[in-house]
Amino acid sequence: QRLEEEELWAKLNAAWQTLTAREAQVLYLTLWRNLTQKQAGQELGIVQPRVCAASKQGIARLRRVMIGSDG
């Protein structure tokens, strides 16, 4: 079980490295720091719709890497 968990974290780390800087910033602020998209936008100096778009793109990118584009 521990090995599987370590492998999962390694895969997530590798997937995270594929994110653009903006996607990584948005996902960090909204998922790890638990900010709303509006708060994240204020911190980054961008409007909420751009935060939403970066979040969707980042999650899609992580999903493609983690489970494969045909998953």
Task: Give keywords.
71 residues, mainly alpha, 77% helix, 4 helices, single chain
Describe the model.
- With 71 residues, the protein is mostly helical.
- Helix content is 77%, strand content 0%.
- It has 4 helices and no strands.
- Helix 1 (2-16) crosses helix 4, helix 2 (21-32) crosses helix 3 and helix 3 (37-44) crosses helix 4 (48-67).
- The longest helix is centred in the C-terminal third of the chain and has 20 residues, at 48-67.
- It is elongated.
- The model has no long low-confidence stretch (mean pLDDT 93).
Could you write a compact summary of the structure shown?
The chain is an all-alpha fold.
Q: Overall 3D geometry? A: elongated
Q: What is the number of helical segments per DSSP (H or I, 4+ residues)?
A: 4
The unreliable regions are none
Q: Tell me the Rg in angstroms.
A: 13 Å
Structural class: mainly alpha
* First-last Cα distance: 24 Å
Instruction: Provide the residue-averaged pLDDT.
Output: 93
Largest sheet: none
Number of strands: 0
**Percent helix among the residues?**
over 70%
Quaternary organisation: single chain
Estimate the strand proportion.
under 5%
Helix and strand pattern: HHHH
Topology:
Blueprint: H1 2-16, H2 21-32, H3 37-44, H4 48-67
Helix pairs in contact: 1-4, 2-3, 2-4, 3-4
